[in-house]
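Mods, move this if it's the wrong board.
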Amino acid sequence: MRIRSCKLTNRWRSRAGSRWTAWILKALTLSVLLAVFCFPRQGFAQASDDFARGLNEFRAGHYSAAEKLFSRAEESAPGTTDALLYGAKCLVHLQDFRGAENGLRQYAVSHPQSDDALYLLGYVLNRENRPAESLEFYTKAAQIRAPTGDDLKIVGLDYVLLNAYADAIKWLEKAVDLDPKNKEAWYYLGRAYYTRQRLSDAGKAFQTVLQLDPHDAKAENNLGLVIESQAQPEAAAEAYRKAIAWQAQSEHPSEQPYLNLGSLLLEQDHTADAIQALETAVKMAPNDAMCHLKLGTAYLRGANLNDARRELEKSVQLAPDDPAAHYQLGKLYKQTHEMEKAKEEFDRTAELQSRAASSRPQ
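Not the wrong board. Structure tokens:
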């Protein structure tokens, strides 16, 4: 009995020891999990802290500061947060599209089903003037989440960059159907209509923009172009002047209403008034060849030959393949009795016009 009792005691001790060992192992496992999730590693904790601070800066519109914090978060613990995605969003706001593209491509490798990243990458590629690649990413994103009006707007603009205006109009029309208050989509649809000479449709699109924003200078300026094309010069000039007045308080006013007004006044033989408007256009856009061409033409018509030479030569320098610039410069040289130079410019005009005619679709 004693032996048997001893055996039972040993068996009980063995079982008790096993239970004790199992309990210890469970406790150790729990302590490890607590250490990982409740007391994270220094790198992970730093990444989480930087990411949270980055989100606060991002929401406050402090994109440069936010981008630095997101970069630090990604360096501290790669792939543990959405730092790459939000860093790319910061870079988009900062107009650094190449940097944004790099971050988004890296993020998309580990998050291939992120519609947010795919749509944003499509937008970035559009801004980098890479429309075909942009459309590929919009197609991938649309398989995950239905596009918004803004998404379809960029799809339409991709087709504009591809010079496929029928497709551009189709997608921009879908954009405004989906989001009737999207004034940018209406504006670009108006531009596409205008390019295809659908003047009535273009006018309606620009008027819709003005209903959504009654002092939108770009829409009013483009409405002026439509009205001018419909042979209403006085009403067109009024629209250009409205656009000029409305953009006076803008941080980035455009030279276009000045250029359009000056060109219209020049056609109506109001040369002095045209020069005044076109001089402003050149000051606002010193690297715009058309502004220099129109101002040079106005100076030439006003017999201000020295200023005309300066503006027309600058126009040819900026746009060497524009036959109109070479033609006006040839007229100037003819008036100043520089006949050899005039012949060169007229020959160049004929060459460029012939090249353009041969490349035009039959």
